[in-house]
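testing teh design pipeline on a random one, pls ignore if ur not involved
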C-alpha cells in the first residue's frame, strides 16, 4: 500500500489580490453587502436600494443584469478609496467589509457540511475575491477570525482545486493567531494536513501536521469531534505510509469518538476512513458495511448494476460541484468518467462507454493525466465500433505546424493566427483575455 511521494509542494502564501481561475478578479457585491458595508446609520434597505439605482443610472456603478451583482470600475474604485482616506473612513469601511464577508462565508461553509453542497459552493464562488480581501484584512486586526474563516473554507479549497491557496492562508492565519483556542488550532491543522496530503500526496508531511493537531487537544473532558476526525485522517496517513495495523487502530479510535456525534459530516468522514483502513488490510466485508453506513458509497462486489449506480451518482455530484481534481485518493473528473465507462463496457453498453470516454479524454489530456488518457484511448479502440471518435491535434513542429485529424495529417507554414488558435483550443471553457493572445 505504500506510494512514493511527489515533489515537495511549492510554497504558497495566500494573498488578497489572487485572481479567480479564469484570471479575472471578481469583486462583485450585492445590495446586502452595500447596506452592511456602505450605508450610514439609520439608512433603510429601501433607501440603500434607491441610492444604488441612482449610481447605476449615472454609470458610477455597474449592474450585471437580472439578479446578478454589482461591480465598480477600477478607476472609480481607486477614486473612492482615495476619498475614504481623505475622510479618515478607510479602516472602518474595510473592517465592515471584512466582517460582512466573514459572516457570509462562515454561514455558506457550514451549510456545505449539512446537506447538498452545490448552492453553498456557488455562494462561495461568487464572493471568492471579497473573501480574499477579508482574509487579508482580518490577519491584521483579528487573526483568530482569519483562522476560523480559512479553516471553514476547507471544503471549498478542496473541491475547487485551490489546495495550495488554502494551505497558504491556513499557515499565515495560524502563525498570526497565537492565542487561538486549542480546538480551532487543531481544526486548522486537520485542514492543512488534509490539503497537503491531497495536493502533494505527501502523507508523511500530512502526518506531522496531524500529530501537532492531536497534541493540541489531548486531555479534553469530552473528546471534541475534531479529535475523531484527526485520528481518522492520521489513520489514512498510516495506510499510505505502510503501517496498516496502526491505520486500523487509529481509525477505530476516531470512529468510536465520532459515535458521540451521530449524523454529522465528521461521523461520515470517520466512517469512510475506517472503511478504507479495513479495505487496506483485506477485510472487505467490514469495509463495505462501514461504507454503506456512511452513505451509499459502497462498491458492490460483482454487482454491476449497483456499482454503476454508485459511480454514476458520484460522477453526478462531481459535476454539480465542478470538482475536476480533489486529490489522489478521490481522483479527478477523468478518472471518474473512466470508471463509469468501464462499468458501462462490462454491461455491454458500448455507446455510453464511448460517449463518456470522448468526454473525458480531452480533459485528461488538458490536465496532463497521461496514464488515464492512455487507458481511455485503449478502451476507445474497443468502443469505436459503436461511435466513431474524432481526434484532432494542432502543434508546432520543426518550424511548421502539424495538424492531425482522424489519422490524417498535414503540415502548414508557421502563421501568427495558428498560435492564437492554439492558445484558444488549449484552454477550453476558459476566459482568454486579448492580452494572452497578443502574448502568444
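output:
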Amino acid at each position: 500500500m505504500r506510494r512514493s511521494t511527489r515533489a515537495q509542494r511549492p510554497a504558497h502564501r495566500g494573498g488578497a489580490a489572487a485572481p479567480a481561475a479564469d484570471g479575472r478578479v471578481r469583486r462583485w457585491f450585492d445590495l446586502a453587502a452595500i447596506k452592511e458595508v456602505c450605508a450610514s446609520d439609520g439608512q433603510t434597505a429601501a433607501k440603500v436600494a434607491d441610492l444604488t439605482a441612482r449610481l447605476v443610472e449615472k454609470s458610477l456603478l455597474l449592474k450585471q443584469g437580472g439578479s446578478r451583482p454589482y461591480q465598480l470600475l477600477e478607476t472609480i474604485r481607486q477614486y473612492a478609496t482615495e476619498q475614504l482616506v481623505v475622510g479618515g473612513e478607510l479602516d472602518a469601511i474595510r473592517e465592515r467589509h471584512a466582517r460582512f464577508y466573514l459572516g457570509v462565508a462562515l454561514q455558506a461553509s457550514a451549510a456545505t457540511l449539512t446537506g447538498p453542497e452545490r448552492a453553498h459552493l456557488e455562494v462561495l464562488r461568487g464572493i471568492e475575491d471579497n473573501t480574499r480581501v477579508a482574509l487579508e484584512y482580518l490577519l491584521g486586526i483579528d487573526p483568530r477570525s482569519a483562522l476560523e474563516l480559512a479553516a471553514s473554507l476547507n471544503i471549498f479549497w478542496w473541491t475547487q482545486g485551490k489546495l495550495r491557496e488554502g494551505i497558504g492562508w491556513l499557515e499565515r492565519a495560524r502563525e498570526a493567531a497565537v492565542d487561538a483556542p486549542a480546538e480551532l488550532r487543531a481544526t486548522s491543522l486537520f485542514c492543512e494536513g488534509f490539503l497537503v496530503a491531497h495536493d502533494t500526496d505527501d502523507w508523511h508531511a500530512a502526518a506531522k501536521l496531524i500529530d501537532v493537531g492531536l497534541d493540541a487537544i489531548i486531555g479534553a473532558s469530552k473528546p471534541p469531534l475534531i479529535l475523531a476526525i484527526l485520528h481518522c485522517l492520521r489513520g489514512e496517513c498510516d495506510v499510505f505510509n505502510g503501517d496498516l495495523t496502526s491505520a486500523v487502530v487509529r481509525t477505530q479510535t476516531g470512529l468510536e469518538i465520532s459515535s458521540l456525534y451521530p449524523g454529522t459530516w465528521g461521523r461520515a468522514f470517520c466512517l469512510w476512513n475506517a472503511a478504507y483502513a479495513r479495505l487496506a488490510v483485506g477485510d472487505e466485508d467490514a469495509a463495505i458495511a462501514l461504507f454503506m453506513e456512511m452513505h451509499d458509497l459502497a462498491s458492490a462486489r460483482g454487482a454491476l448494476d449497483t456499482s454503476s449506480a454508485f459511480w454514476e451518482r458520484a460522477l453526478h455530484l462531481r459535476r454539480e460541484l465542478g470538482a475536476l481534481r480533489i486529490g489522489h485518493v478521490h481522483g479527478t473528473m477523468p478518472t471518474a468518467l473512466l470508471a463509469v465507462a468501464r462499468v458501462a463496457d462490462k454491461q455491454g453498453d458500448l455507446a455510453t462507454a464511448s460517449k463518456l470516454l470522448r468526454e473525458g479524454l480531452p480533459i485528461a489530456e488538458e490536465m496532463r493525466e497521461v496514464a488515464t488518457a492512455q487507458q481511455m484511448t485503449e478502451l476507445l479502440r474497443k468502443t469505436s465500433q459503436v461511435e466513431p471518435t474524432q481526434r484532432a491535434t494542432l502543434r508546432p513542429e520543426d518550424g511548421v505546424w502539424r495538424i492531425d485529424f482522424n489519422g490524417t495529417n498535414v503540415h502548414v507554414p508557421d502563421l501568427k493566427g495558428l498560435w492564437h488558435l492554439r492558445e484558444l483550443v488549449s484552454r477550453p471553457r476558459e476566459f482568454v483575455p486579448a492580452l494572452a493572445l497578443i502574448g502568444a
